Amino acid sequence: MSDERTPARVWLAAGGVALLVIALDQLTKALVRDGITPGDEHRFLPGVELVNTRNRGVAFGFLPGSHVGVTILIAAALLVLLVYFARHLDRPLIWLPTGLLIGGAVGNVVDRIRAGSVTDFVKLPLGWPPFNIADASITIGIVVLVIVIDRGRER
Question: pLDDT at residue 5 above 90?
Fold first, then answer.
């Protein structure tokens, strides 16, 4: 491993990404809660609307109403991710999906603790469930993690 990718720097990079995701997620959710009445829809871009909805499940409404189940699922997934991350610090860019996933998970957990549900606000066409920055971060994090793992196998 080169000096640029010391374990401390890799952990710091993942933590920095996680903190950025949490901050952006919480800021955008606060803006939505303060600026959009639940039930209202505001056109943002062609085909994209901003709404103010509550989600009691995990990303995109999966497992609604199961607070204990959701908490156990999130905790188990984060534990597996952190163990994988700690064992593969030498993989290029492993800090990026790790930070995205941790930041997204923590961003939504903060909502669950604060309000018992998660604020979702981005609504796409074709019946896609509303989502938020944390959900997008988790989704992108999973895709990037698969790419990082696959590239690691090629090495």
Answer: no
120 is catalytic: yes
Nearest-CA neighbor of 59 among 126, 142, 145, 150? 142
Closest among 76, 80, 82, 77 to 98, alpha carbons compared: 82
Written as one string, the DSSP assignment of 83-138 is: HHHHH-TTSTTTHHHHHHHHHHHHHHHHHHHHHSSEEEEEE-STTPPPB-HHHHHH
Sort strands 48-55 and 118-123 into parallel, antiparallel or unpaired: antiparallel
Determine which one of 3, 40, 90, 135 is catalytic: 135
Instruction: Say what the pLDDT of residue 155 is.
Output: 62
Task: Quote the pTM value.
Answer: 0.87
The pLDDT score that the predictor gives to residue 1 is 42
Catalytically annotated residue among 25, 90, 111, 120:
120
The residue type of 142 is: I
Percentage above 70 pLDDT, the chain: 87
CB 55 within 8 A of CB 135: no
